[in-house]
Design a protein that fits this description.
This protein is an all-alpha fold and 497 residues long. It is built from 19 helices and four strands. The chain has one domain. A two-stranded antiparallel sheet has the order 1-2. A two-stranded antiparallel ribbon has the order 3-4.
Length: 497
């Protein structure tokens, strides 16, 4: 796609601050939701600390990749099962930190292997016929979150007649439509900040409806909660303006002796978290492949998969030490880049710095916590939709008229959307699987095996013409003079009578 700002471009400072704020808004809801879920499992995780952890983790990633990969790291949902298992087995705060350390080290070890053997195997193992539907699956698998937020404003289970709300749907779709209008019909400047425009408009509508609902005592209209403001400012103090995040490693130090971790416990923690690190590898590669197609630069080779893996792994370890939650590459950030055409690494860096600084600023954290889920759901319709479509665009070179390719693509879609997962062992406390291979990773495994079966043990790209596909992969395009073009057949000229 045509970028307005490329990776190394530096917009004006005033523009950069606005673009950075938009990136922060795009990743904020999901990043802060993970620590809330961890708290529900039994350990206190601070949302401000998670925000700090995401920011500092992203800075680590940018340093490791030499500021060549515009990726933002946010709290990972993939680790939720591991968090629940380690908390359920009474491993406490140190259990989570040590667990993420093991998972992060998996990335580092794989990165060191790739540095020795190279990353060429990635394109062979995950060609367009596999990586395309996997990327599309990432967006489609998240779509349920977006629609449930729109229909139920964050209710755990949307039930028609109970948590189902037409007012919530109205606000969510209004937010989405405003993003569309700003992105398609706005001025050049507005097209770069459609999410700020859309979310601000949705928040304003939710506020008006809530004020009317409060005045008229109509519960259905109250889609915005003032409780975060009440909790923070009802007893005003200096902490109502500035407060330090409750870092996870401080909680771990304070709990020393409360949770006993012997060698057997640490070994069990490793068994819980190490496989998650391997599973996350699939999403890491898929996200970087997706972003590569957007910025028209292969991040697997430049800065290199070894550097992106080390950045992701160390970013997760640092993020967990501060915020309690492992980090991962965020599709919301990639979707934001795709929609706005702004891939400036400076915008990502300022967004990370903004998360670090604003995590100490209580009113900002309160404001973000007050954004209705239906508003964020409307924004996520656009974000997750663009992720799915970018994956489908990768399939444009694949010959879907060939039944071999159809089997590979259909297997990935059905297994992923249907929720196939591989569970091993039984957690004696939770009753669930001790090790859970997510549906995304399961779909990837099934897709790779299917590709091997239909191609007699060889991995096929699925492209109609591999040589042309190689040129396209090298960032050439139709009409590009750097790509050899087939001569057009000339018709016979008719003789004039």
């Amino acid at each position: 796609m045509k970028l307005i700002y490329d990776v190394q471009d530096k917009p004006k400072m005033s523009q950069t601050l606005v673009f950075a704020f938009q990136q922060m808004i795009a990743i904020m809801a999901a990043t802060l939701l993970v620590p809330m879920l961890v708290t529900s499992y039994g350990l206190e995780a601070d949302v401000a600390a998670a925000l700090f952890g995401a920011g500092i983790g992203t800075i680590v990633y940018l340093l490791c990749t030499k500021r060549r990969s515009p990726v933002f790291l946010g709290s990972s949902f993939t680790f939720l099962g591991a968090y629940a298992a380690s908390i359920g087995q009474n491993y406490g705060y140190w259990g989570m930190i040590i667990g993420v350390l093991f998972a992060g080290l998996v990335y580092v070890v794989i990165a060191l292997i790739i540095k020795v053997v190279g990353s060429g195997w990635v394109n062979k193992l995950m060609p367009a016929v596999i990586i395309g539907p996997i990327v599309a699956l990432i967006g489609l698998s998240l779509s349920g979150t977006a629609t449930s937020w729109v229909m139920g404003n964050g209710a755990a289970d949307v039930v028609y007649g109970e948590s189902y709300s037409w007012v919530s749907i109205l606000v969510g779709l209004f937010t989405f439509f405003m993003i569309v209008v700003a992105s398609v019909k706005g001025s050049k400047t507005v097209k770069l900040i459609p999410f700020i425009v859309g979310i601000a408009a949705g928040y304003a509508l939710a506020l008006v409806l809530t004020v009317i609902g409060t005045a008229a005592n109509i519960e259905a209209l109250k889609v915005l909660s003032f409780q975060p403001f009440i909790d923070t400012f009802s007893h005003f103090s200096i902490q109502s303006i500035i407060d330090y995040p409750k870092f996870f490693f401080l909680k771990a130090i304070q709990s020393n002796g409360q949770y006993v971790l012997d060698a057997a416990a640490i070994g069990n923690i490793a068994m819980i978290y190490v496989p998650i690190g391997i599973v996350e590898l699939a999403q890491h590669i898929a996200d970087h492949k997706n972003l590569s197609s957007i910025i028209e630069r292969d991040l697997i080779t430049d800065p290199g998969l070894d550097k992106t893996l080390i950045g992701d792994g160390l970013g997760s370890i640092v993020g967990a030490a501060f915020g309690g939650c492992a980090n991962t590459t965020y599709g919301e950030s990639i979707g934001c880049i795709a929609i706005t055409g702004n891939a400036s690494i400076v915008s990502i860096l300022y967004a990370a710095l903004g998360c670090v600084v604003l995590s100490f600023f209580t009113p900002f954290v309160v404001l973000i916590n007050s954004i209705p889920k239906c508003v964020m759901g409307g924004a996520c319709i656009a974000l997750y939709g663009f992720i799915a479509v970018s994956g489908l665009q990768m399939l444009r070179r694949v010959d879907l008229g060939d039944s071999r390719n159809l089997f590979v693509v259909s297997a990935i879609f059905v297994c992923g959307i249907g929720g196939l997962y591989f569970g091993f062992g039984t957690n004696g406390i939770t009753g669930g699987a001790l090790l859970n291979i997510t549906s995304l990773a399961a779909a990837l495994i099934v897709g790779i095996v299917t590709n091997l079966i239909v191609n007699n043990g060889h991995l096929s790209s699925g492209e109609e013409n591999s040589s042309i596909g190689a040129h396209v992969e090298g960032m050439g395009s139709v009409g590009d003079p750097t790509v050899p073009q087939k001569p057009r057949p000339q018709g016979k000229k008719k003789k004039k009578k």
